[in-house]
C-alpha cells in the first residue's frame, strides 16, 4: 500500500508494482517518482502524446446534454453506417460472440425503417459498434481520413449518452452488450491501468447480477433456448472482463465462483442459432473454430485463474501443498486447451491465421502470469530451502517467457510481420503482463547479488543471469518507445535505469551491444559483483 498526498493506493503482492517495491534499492526512488508523477498528472498530462481520450471512462465522467433527436441526427448516412458495421463484424477478433449477427441485422433493418421508434438502448449499441470499428481503423492506421478521430469521439460520446438517457442502471435489452463494448473501447484507449475501468467493470457485473445472468437459463422455463444461449455468451464475457481488469489493477475480482452456476456457451456458429429454435444443437467439435471457441479456451484457464486470484486475496496463510495443487491444475488446463490454441513456435505457424496466433500468445501470457502469481512468493530470501526450488525455477522461467513473448509481439506486429494485421489488439492489458515479467526479473537480479553459491536451485546462475540481462536489455528500447504515451512504461524505464544502468535514450551503439554476448556478460558481471 502507498500513501501520498492524494490518499492510499493498494495493489496485491503479485502485481508488478508490488514486486518492484520489494526491491530495496528501488523503494525510495519509487516513492519519489510516484509522488512526482501523481502531482504532474493532477496539473496536466505533461509531455505524453494525446490519444483521443478523456481522463477516464466517459460513462463515469461525461455530462449528458443531448436529446434523442440530437443523437439520431448524428447517425451518419446509411451507406456510411453499412460500411462501419460491416467492418465491425468482419474484422478478425473484433465482433464479440455475444452479438448474434443474424439477430442484429434484423434489428438494424427495423432501425432504418423507423429510427425514432427504436429504443435508445439499441441506438447506444449501434454507436458502440461504430465506435469500436472506427477505433480499430485509427489503431491500424488503415485510413488517413482527417475526420476519423473526430468521428470516433462523436460515436464514443453518443454511446455514453444513450446509456445514460436509457437509464442503464435499470438494465434491459442491449445495455450489458453496449457496456461491454464501452469497456473494450476504453481498454484499447488506455495506455495504462485505469481505476475507472475497474470501477466500470464492477458496474457491469452488478447489472448482470441484478438481471440474473449468474444463474443458468435452464432453471427458468420462460427463457427461450436462443435467449438463454446468448445470455451465457454475455455472462462469459463479463466473467472474463472481471478477471482481466482485476488482475491488471492488482485487486480482488468482484465475482466469486460459488456465486454463479451459468454454464459455458456451446461451440456454435451464429448460423446454428436463431430465435425460433426449440432446442439447442449440440456443440460443434473443437476442431471447428467458431466465434465462441476462443472464449471457451480462455474459460478453462480462467477457472484456475479465479482460484489463484481468490487464494492471493485471502489474508490467511496457505500450505505449500495448496500452491502445488493449483500448479498441477493449471498445467492440466493448459494441456486441455483446444488443439488450435495450443502454443506452437512461430516457425511452425506461418500458415495459421494471425488472430489464432495472437490468441495463442494471449493464452500463454495468461498461463505464465498465473505461474508467477502462484510462485513469486518463493523467490524471497526466507524461502531459500531446497523444497521451494521448483517454485523459484518456475517463477523465473515464466518471467523469461513473458519477455520472450514481448520480443515476439514487438517483431511480428511490424509491417510484414505475422501479427501486423491484428496489431490493433495490443493494449494496456498486454503491457501489464510484460511489466510483471520485467519486475520479477529485476527482483531476481537484485537477489542474485547475495545468492549463496550453495543455492540449491537447479537454475544455472551465470547462464540464467546472462539470459535475463540480455532480455531486459533487448526489451528496454520497447519501453523507451512506449514511455511517450504510457506512464507505466515510463516507470519501467526508470526502474531499469536504476537496476541495470541503462541509458536514458537508446542508440545504435546500445543496440549493437545488446546483440553482443560478451558485452552482456561483462555488464552482467558488474551487476552481480
From TrEMBL:
<dbReference type="GO" id="GO:0003677">
    <property type="term" value="F:DNA binding"/>
</dbReference>
<keyword id="KW-0805">Transcription regulation</keyword>
<feature type="domain" description="Xylanolytic transcriptional activator regulatory">
    <location>
        <begin position="197"/>
        <end position="271"/>
    </location>
</feature>
<dbReference type="InterPro" id="IPR007219">
    <property type="entry name" value="XnlR_reg_dom"/>
</dbReference>
<dbReference type="GO" id="GO:0008270">
    <property type="term" value="F:zinc ion binding"/>
</dbReference>
<dbReference type="GO" id="GO:0006351">
    <property type="term" value="P:DNA-templated transcription"/>
</dbReference>
<keyword id="KW-0539">Nucleus</keyword>
<dbReference type="Pfam" id="PF04082">
    <property type="entry name" value="Fungal_trans"/>
</dbReference>
<dbReference type="InterPro" id="IPR050613">
    <property type="entry name" value="Sec_Metabolite_Reg"/>
</dbReference>
<keyword id="KW-0804">Transcription</keyword>
<protein>
    <recommendedName>
        <fullName>Xylanolytic transcriptional activator regulatory domain-containing protein</fullName>
    </recommendedName>
</protein>
<dbReference type="GO" id="GO:0005634">
    <property type="term" value="C:nucleus"/>
</dbReference>
Amino acid at each position: 500500500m502507498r500513501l501520498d498526498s492524494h490518499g492510499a493506493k493498494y495493489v496485491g503482492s503479485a502485481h508488478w508494482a508490488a514486486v518492484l517495491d520489494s526491491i530495496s534499492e528501488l523503494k525510495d526512488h519509487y516513492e519519489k517518482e510516484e509522488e512526482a508523477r501523481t502531482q504532474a498528472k493532477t496539473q496536466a498530462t505533461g509531455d505524453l502524446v494525446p490519444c483521443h481520450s478523456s481522463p477516464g471512462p466517459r460513462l463515469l465522467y461525461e455530462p449528458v446534454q443531448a436529446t434523442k433527436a440530437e443523437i439520431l441526427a448524428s447517425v451518419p448516412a446509411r451507406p456510411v453506417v453499412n460500411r462501419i458495421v460491416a467492418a465491425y463484424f468482419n474484422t478478425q477478433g473484433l465482433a464479440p460472440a455475444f452479438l448474434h449477427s443474424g439477430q442484429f441485422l434484423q434489428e438494424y433493418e427495423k432501425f432504418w425503417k423507423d429510427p425514432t421508434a427504436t429504443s435508445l438502448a439499441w441506438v447506444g449499441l449501434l454507436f458502440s459498434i461504430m465506435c469500436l470499428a472506427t477505433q480499430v481503423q485509427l489503431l491500424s492506421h488503415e485510413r488517413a481520413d482527417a475526420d476519423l478521430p473526430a468521428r470516433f469521439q462523436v460515436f464514443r460520446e453518443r454511446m455514453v449518452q444513450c446509456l445514460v438517457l436509457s437509464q442503464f442502471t435499470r438494465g434491459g435489452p442491449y445495455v450489458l452488450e453496449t457496456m461491454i463494448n464501452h469497456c473494450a473501447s476504453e481498454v484499447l484507449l488506455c495506455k495504462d491501468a485505469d481505476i475507472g475501468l475497474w470501477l466500470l467493470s464492477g458496474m457491469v457485473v452488478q447489472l448482470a447480477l441484478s438481471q440474473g445472468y449468474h444463474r443458468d437459463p435452464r432453471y427458468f422455463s420462460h427463457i427461450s433456448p436462443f435467449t438463454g444461449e446468448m445470455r451465457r455468451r454475455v455472462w462469459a464475457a463479463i466473467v472474463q472482463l472481471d478477471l482481466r481488469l482485476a488482475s491488471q489493477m492488482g485487486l480482488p475480482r468482484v465475482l466469486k465462483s460459488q456465486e454463479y452456476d451459468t454454464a459455458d456457451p456451446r461451440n456454435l456458429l451464429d448460423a446454428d442459432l436463431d430465435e425460433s429454435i426449440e432446442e439447442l444443437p449440440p456443440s460443434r467439435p473443437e476442431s471447428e473454430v467458431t466465434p465462441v471457441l476462443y472464449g471457451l479456451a480462455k474459460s478453462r484457464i480462467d477457472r484456475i485463474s479465479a482460484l489463484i486470484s481468490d487464494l492471493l486475496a485471502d489474508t490467511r496463510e496457505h500450505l505449500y501443498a495448496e500452491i502445488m495443487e493449483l500448479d498441477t491444475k493449471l498445467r492440466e488446463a493448459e494441456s486441455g486447451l483446444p488443439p488450435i490454441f495450443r502454443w506452437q513456435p512461430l516457425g511452425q505457424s506461418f500458415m495459421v491465421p494471425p488472430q489464432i496466433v495472437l490468441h495463442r500468445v494471449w493464452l500463454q501470457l495468461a498461463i505464465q502470469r498465473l505461474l508467477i502469481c502462484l510462485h513469486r512468493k518463493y523467490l524471497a530470501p526466507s524461502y531459500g530451502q531446497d523444497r521451494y526450488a521448483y517454485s523459484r525455477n518456475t517463477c523465473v522461467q515464466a518471467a523469461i517467457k513473458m519477455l520472450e513473448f514481448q520480443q515476439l509481439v514487438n517483431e511480428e506486429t511490424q509491417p510484414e510481420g505475422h501479427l501486423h494485421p491484428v496489431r490493433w489488439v495490443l493494449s494496456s492489458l498486454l503491457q501489464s503482463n510484460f511489466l510483471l515479467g520485467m519486475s520479477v526479473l529485476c527482483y531476481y537480479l537484485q537477489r542474485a547479488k547475495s545468492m549463496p553459491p550453495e543455492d540449491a536451485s537447479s537454475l544455472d546462475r551465470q547462464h540464467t543471469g546472462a539470459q535475463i540481462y540480455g532480455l531486459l536489455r533487448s526489451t528496454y528500447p520497447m519501453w523507451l518507445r512506449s514511455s511517450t504515451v504510457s506512464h507505466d512504461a515510463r516507470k519501467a524505464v526508470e526502474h531499469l535505469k536504476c537496476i541495470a544502468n541503462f541509458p536514458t535514450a537508446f542508440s545504435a551503439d546500445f543496440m549493437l551491444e545488446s546483440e553482443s554476448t560478451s558485452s552482456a556478460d561483462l555488464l552482467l558481471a558488474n551487476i552481480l559483483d
